[in-house]
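Reopening this one. Same input as before:
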Amino acid sequence: MTVERAGALELLRQMVLIRRFEEKCAEVYSEGKIRGFLHLYIGEEAVAVGALSALSPDDNIVATYREHGHAIVRGTPLESIMSEMYGKVTGCSHGRGGSMHLFDVKRRFFGGHAIVGGGLPLSVGLAMSDARLGRRAVTACFFGDGAMAEGEFHESMNLAALWTLPVLFLCENNLYAMGTALSRYQAVTDLCLKARSYGVEAEAVDGMDVVAVRDATARAANAVRETKRPRFLELRTYRFRAHSMYDPELYRTKAEVREWMEKHDPIQAFTGWLTQQGWLSPSDVAEMERRVAEDIARAVAEAEAGALEPVAELTSHVYSERAR
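Same output, byte for byte:
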């Protein structure tokens, strides 16, 4: 692994922060304090942490509806994220987006998109804008394996390659498109082949290894930045929780999930490696957990205390005859 102690500990802290934040979200959702859909990222933390740690603050980030972890790593304050989950005006989307529509334009975090594949065309547009303006930014677009069955994926890959646009396509392949196994909806399960069919260089990466993800993303992003041509990474990962809080999860066995949790948990694996290096002790882990818990508690407290949008303001920022 190519990582120094301070950087490695920060990678672990961010993964733990995402895991505990997600667990808290599940708890308050069950209490009825978060409404609508909730898609948890538990098990996939190494992807967001590894990939985003390799990108520049000037790069554009486009994510899916399972984007809480991406927003956290990007630097959006926990209070702002949790308040958005609660639907409060202090949220990063002013309470109008909720769990699936986190936006933070200041940090060039352009969603949070509820529609499968919906962020792909947007990423092409952002990259085209940067190319026209002469910016050296990369547009990193995260999407699930299920999005690769959508027309938006093929159109976006084709145009990015045809027009030589600086897009880094990051496929979070968690093996299930909602509730359908990869082999049941894709005739060709080697996802990199699909990217290469458009003349785009592609690489498959162990998405449960945070350093492998970081290093692969750094290589790919640097190549995109220098050549202005798109690249594709397939990040092979696995979610430990159901597709959403409404999902009865009848499409896979509990034994399969348990095996992934026991053998491939990215946090446990990285914690073990750090301990072997002599870089981490049980007391370090306890202190990290304590600080993470305090940060999340503050975020929940602010969300609880935040105000809902006044009814009189509900038509603002909405295109309608009445609002004009």
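So the earlier flakiness isn't reproducible anymore. For the record, The chain has twelve helices and seven strands.
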